[in-house]
Amino acid sequence: PKEKFWLPDIVINEFMEENKAPSVPYVYLYNDGAVHDAMPVRVVSSCNLNIYTFPFDVQNCSLTFNSYI
Predict the structure, then answer these.
(1) Residue 39, in any domain of the structure
(2) Which residues contact residue 59 at a Cβ distance below 8 angstroms, ignoring those fewer than 6 apart?
(3) Rounded mean pLDDT of 12-30?
(4) How many domains does the chain contain in total?
(5) What are the Neurotransmitter-gated ion-channel ligand-binding domain coordinates in residue numbering (predicted)?
């Protein structure tokens, strides 16, 4: 079961809403010992837009990942 594995508490600093993506109750185990957690994440964040050159503008929005540890 997934709850038997330690998973890092990765958070996205730019979250505007709580992640409401459905939880996946399992992890993938591989024969080389690797463990893969395919947790879906729904991100609602803010981004400063520069529309001065619209409709030829290009927008870049950064996401910052951190841990509480």
Answers:
(1) yes
(2) 47, 49, 50
(3) 82
(4) 1
(5) 1-68
For residue 44 the two structure tokens come to 């609602």
User: Residue 35: in which H helix or E strand, if any?
Assistant: strand 35-36
| CB 68 within 8 Å of CB 10 | no
Q: Which amino acid is at 5?
A: F
Per-position b or e across 5-26, b if 16+ CB within 10 A of its CB: eeeeeeeeeeeeeeeeeeeeee
The pLDDT tens digits of the residues spanning 46-66 come to 888 888 999 999 998 888 988
Rounded CA-CA distance 40/26 in Å is 12
CA 31 to chain centroid, in Å, comes to 26
